[in-house]
Amino acid sequence: MPPKKAETVENNVVRFGRVKNNLNMGVVGLPNVGKSSLFNLLTEQSVAAENYPFCTIDTNVARCPVPDTRYDFLCDLWAPPSCYPAYLMVTDIAGLIKGASEGAGLGNTFLSHIQAVDGIFHVVRAFENDDVVHVEDSVDPVRDLETIQNELCKKDLEILVRNKQAEEANVRKSGGAYKLSPLFNDTFAKIKEMLEKNIPVRDGTWSSGEIELINEKTQLITTKPVIYLINLTQTDFIRKKNKWLAKIHKWVTEHGGGTMIPFSVEFETNLWKLKDKPEEKESFLKEHGATSNLPKIITNGYTQLGLIYYFTAGETEVRCWTIREGCLAPQAAGVIHSDFERGFIKAEVCAFNDFKELCGGRKGMAEIKAAGKYRQEGKTYVVQDGDIIHFQFNVTAQKKK
């Protein structure tokens, strides 16, 4: 009789993938939908973004600061010589086309690039422009969504079969000393059935044991969280209307749901050109009654990866330290330095909102302590997003053998 499965995990997308702090969002989509242009805007890089398919062949990786008014408040208050925000790592990946899973358009290379990232910004073109060629000769975002999802599912099916064959080979080599568990066989059969129907793995309902197995035995693309970025003309973005938006929303809802963010490369590019002209920039925004959606894209990408950060703040530095959601205090301390984790004694903690409310615009923790909002936490404390922390540790603590 197979062992009883663990309880079902809800909202498990962030449970899939690597358990690390340096996670990465990949910018994915068909050619000429605005991927590299978006990457340039997010990271203020200068990556080639020409009007022909496969302009981007090698991946480009950069980072963009995560906007946060809490961080801005601490920097303004302490005014230290060093300020270090949280960063989102972003990879620009070449455009995929129909047949990519079978090698079309250097597809296998580009699919391996998607396999290497931890989350996906899926850029969808919802604008007409005769000067920007479309790989399918016509604009149809729903068709394009189907194309990308089908190619990713096909690639995952190939990966799944290859991994199962490798495990079966290990069984044969062991001479019976090693056998595939019922959980392994059942999970792989369930994944195979989903992928054959072009259903991403992330859209399934999984137990914690199944998720651990999938993480250990596979590197499936469709386990990765997805944010759908809908690229509109500047006119459509400003008026918040586009003939495709309702159809795209319907497709997303019927295919597992997810975050959908309309934006406009055209609008963002025109705004970025005014970055050194504050008065003209303010006039541009006021005239059009719109604001940039890049901060929303960045913060949603960071959150979808299951990342949070805590603050350290003082006279010399204000800094955000990225950790995975659910991280315990010693491991959070280890992000600063391994000695902090090895010799962890306690964490002195206050929530950002308590600090802002009680500090009276002054540096230091005197008012927060007086109000009883400055507390000491031990090794089992789960660090919360926005905690302000000072760690106590003993550097003479001996390493465990």
UniProtKB/TrEMBL annotation:
Name of this protein: Obg-like ATPase homolog
UniProt lineage: Eukaryota, Discoba, Heterolobosea, Tetramitia, Eutetramitia
Keyword Nucleotide-binding assigned: yes
Domain OBG-type G: 23-283
Keywords: ATP-binding, Nucleotide-binding
PROSITE patterns listed in its UniProt record: G_OBG (PS51710)
Signal peptide (residue range): none
Any one GO cellular component localisation term in the record: cytoplasm
